[in-house]
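Closing statement on the pyridoxal-5'-phosphate sub-project.
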Amino acid sequence: MTPGPTQVPERALARLGQQVIHHRTEEFRSLFAEVLEGLKHVFQTRHDVVVLTSSGTGAMEAAVANVVPRGGKAIVLESGKFSERWRLICERFGIEVVRYEVPWGEPFDPAEVARLLDVHRDAVAVYTTLSESSTGVGHDIEAIGRAVGPSGKLLVVDAISGAGVMECRTDAWGIDLLVVGSQKALMIPPGLAFVAVSPAAWRQIESVAQRPVFYFDLLAYRKSLAAPEPPYTPAISLVRALAETLRTICSEGIEQVWVRARTLARATRAAIEALGLQLVAKRPADGLTAVYFPPGLDGPKFLRRVESRFGVKLAGGQGPLKGRAFRIAHMGLLDELDIVSAIAAIELVLHEMGYPVTLGAGVAAASRVFADSSHDSVSSSRG
Ligand SMILES: *Cc1c(COP(=O)(O)O)cnc(C)c1O
């Protein structure tokens, strides 16, 4: 139950075991066309989506190096381990960074973004994050989009742990580049990354004469979208597995996936609060929940015990939250019973380690949320 890599559905696993086909074939092109359509539905865009063979960070790098020239300016919104990465990538490419930092666990203020855009009129783009996986904060990208829109600058969003699990409307929210990875809500192994690119973003990319990229040259990917195929040998087996998970997501409908995840997130938070534990995020995301360890508890030992006794893998904290917090994901294949059993495991191990819990209190709180939201057609992904 970590925020990536997530469990891969059986049907997609079976595809990974099949003989590799050639990619310059009608068979692959039609599969690839289907995958692109599925991704557009998940990302809620009518514009181009390119598929890269890399982890999510490769797509972040592409969304920097193609877009802002060396010596150009970017506004980076920083609130945790992953949004910090935007700044580190920008700095590596010699881009001047205007940094808007909020404490870990807090959301960005869209009014501050508007103010910075007003002061830094020469900035090319705003870099931000939908779901900050280190803190479990879900940023208000819709409101940030409204702040960026009038400036005419590009809005670039890392949605690696957000897209496919929480509301994300690329076109309607004015997102110019949306970056996503394969191993989170899209439920396939790591190795593919995606960038949705708006027409305004393409115009900006075309205008950057010296783009320090070869493999990650997005214009090369756009050119071969006509086929459609990728310019270089794709991770064929992963594309096949992705076609399988996208079929499942598209047949349920992405909005219904969002509703289901929101209920899992609410139930998780209700359980955590019922156990007297504290959430890290002031504005929580739907794909994962970050929780402070209670004072005095040996966090790493707690996580090891939850895993060894119950086979439940939770994620630890990152950066300043290392040893201070843990994270539970509720994206992809996970359903209500997975949440209930993880909460039960957490209760039992807390109890075993001497932390005062009322056994069943977290489970009851989660079940109450499920009972009250059964009319939202929260059916089990197994059922
Ligand atoms: C997982 C994640 C990344 C990093 O992706 P990799 O696939 O490890 O390169 C970046 N941003 C966010 C928000 C993530 O959750």
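Residues 3-4, 55-57, 82, 129, 131, 133, 158, 160-161, 181, 190 surround pyridoxal-5'-phosphate (CB under 6 Å). With this model delivered, the sub-project is considered complete and its resources will be redirected to Aim 3.
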